[in-house]
């Protein structure tokens, strides 16, 4: 009886132990099969898919810039035989390797033709400027192209000593050299023209130096000359928008009552320039008057000039105290250009700016790179009644601010080569070819900056594995990549306007993707913190499971031994 | 050798401690801010973050001032301070956002670090720190790995040309151990395992006014003027162990130039480059006067009425409001429940019938 109970108990015990073992195994199976993948999935950082292959392609930038050139021969420049044998078109390519990831190819597609009768009439004007204007009325050339009219050596349209006249739009007048003689072969004629055409294109379209300067975001410039560095630092970097502020500083309202018709001046002189530059960037203009705003520097009295002077060395200390009072539109992060008009107080009138050689500066103005310009306007406060009414001559003022503005925006270029005459820039203050030049460099700069942004974003996200990448980032990156590819394609074909537009879109999208506020979530935990979080959660649960598994394993090892013992 | 005059200077000065007894951290930050402004960097290029307002703290015996030297010699708060991030806005997230530029689009210009690849940036941090972290606001911390990653993000986006990192906390050297981006130079007030100590208390204000390292750093900077030629090697010698008690450390292996050729004014001061304007344009077209097309606004003719104000009697003779009765708090309830349970456990459940 007792043995039966013992056996029953033993069976019960084995049954429960069996069930216990099954339970432990089941729990372990659930933990491993369901728990671990669930924990892994819920604690991983969300990273949306990025088009990495396309981004890596962009890292290798191969830019091709195509310029369409039209060379028009007028009467007297080519003999009849040459005229019959002119090739209709010619393509010249220049390859440059900037560094191991950036290559440039310049493609000049030149078309040759002879002038039409109307063009001949236009070229027979007395001065180059008039010829230029009449030529414009005949045809319109697309953005990015250049038309060169070759006039005979004896022609009087170009003044003495001038070989090339660069007009307001996209045309240039080139005086044929002395090689235009009968016995010379056509090839030599074209070759000699080629050297002149190259120079014209470097002035009117772009030079290799300009393009490499525009690529400075991709390519660290290394050791450049001081002038080159100064030039590149003077103009603002390419930005989709700029803010321009005109300020009138009146330190002495009791003596001077100033009237300035700034709205009319801006709409007459500044706005045409900015409207013409609309493809490059948006501009917003405002103006203000500041009273009791003084310059931070005391001018010195110079008895030889009978005036107060501000030397060039002390000018740099003028800007900082004034800048705090200028204010700016807080809402946008576009670069700000400030133009200040300072009317000296009656105690320090007249005030002249002197350069390093102590000569007075005729414009009485100075500028600071990437900041803006300041002009000192002297006023004759002669009058018995104070305050004296002063009407500021806005034409003179804008005549100084306009070239400063051109300088800040990067329009001004290096001095032209010898023999070149640059014509006046026309009503808008900006010649078409200057705009084209700006658009070439700006679109290359935009493409370079956008590619660096996208590739560095991809690299960064790869390197720092903890950053969360949301879906909208992936979308923005994809659209930026698409815009970039379109921009590069349009540059290849030579559609400058479209290339500029796509490059601007690419920049906006890439900047938005890179600077998205959600990319900040760096989920970094030091190792000891990770242990501290997981151990209290997992250890109490894992210990019984592990122990029971270990016990089962030891029993399994013992049982063959036991079986053997029993058999014995 | 590139002329450093053409590089813009930007600054980020951060104080991370709250509470009145951390007065010295705010004074540290403000002193660096002041000397940098004196050397010519404008407010638009400085992002100043103060975690607490000491000048208008209730415990400040001299309101609207923050002194950096005992006997109240130098008021570093002054009239001209522009604090960009104040109080609870100084968080690790905001700090990292300012550095990396990942701010929401509505952030005003003064709260952004508008730097580009031609900016030399100075970052000054002070507060309480430990081995590998810096405490923000007594509630969160930034680790040295996060800081290094933030600087790497700045480098890849070309947000700086050269970066100088100064930290004045305990075990400050641990914060620059993990940097890996090029062109960073770092200085710290103490090594790992050492504490940075404060300089001197002021008996009138009742707290310590400055930390030692920043105090001697400031003395050093007072001798710098915008055209001085002192270089970084002199900055490394500031506050030796005899004065600072802790050992200041520095790290220059990531910096491309030789520290001896780096001027202090490359980071601390800036003189703007100016050019005389030589070209003028002779404008001949007459000005077109705009017609005033704005409509003349009609004057408002409706009578204005006032809202009902409080009756005067209620304002002048205010009786104390009778407090409504609230049932006892959770804590009291819990305590009583515990006492009852213990009683019944000890004396048996049969006594319950006496209650109910």
UniProtKB/TrEMBL annotation, chain A:
Record's bilayer topology term: Multi-pass membrane protein
Keyword Kinase: no
Cell compartments where the protein resides: Endoplasmic reticulum membrane
Keywords, sorted A to Z: Endoplasmic reticulum, Glycoprotein, GPI-anchor biosynthesis, Membrane, Transmembrane, Transmembrane helix
Cellular compartments per GO CC: GPI-anchor transamidase complex
Statement: the UniProt record of this protein carries the keyword Glycoprotein: yes
Pathway recorded for this protein: Glycolipid biosynthesis; glycosylphosphatidylinositol-anchor biosynthesis
Protein family according to the UniProt entry: Belongs to the PIGS family.
Protein's name according to its UniProt entry: Phosphatidylinositol glycan anchor biosynthesis, class S
Organism: Esox lucius
UniProtKB/TrEMBL annotation, chain B:
Protein name: GPI-anchor transamidase
Assembly behavior: Heteropentamer. Part of the GPI-anchor transamidase complex, consisting of PIGK, PIGT, PIGS, PIGU and GAA1. Interacts with GPAA1. Interacts with PIGT; this interaction, via a disulfide link, stabilizes the expression of GAA1 and PIGK and links them to PIGS.
GO MF assignments: GPI-anchor transamidase activity
Taxonomic lineage of the native organism: Eukaryota, Metazoa, Chordata, Craniata, Vertebrata
Residues forming coiled coils: none
Species in which this protein is naturally found: Esox lucius (Northern pike)
Membrane-spanning residues: 330-348
Keywords (A to Z) from UniProt: GPI-anchor biosynthesis, Membrane, Signal, Transmembrane, Transmembrane helix
PANTHER family per record: GPI-ANCHOR TRANSAMIDASE (PTHR48067)
GO biological process: one example: attachment of GPI anchor to protein
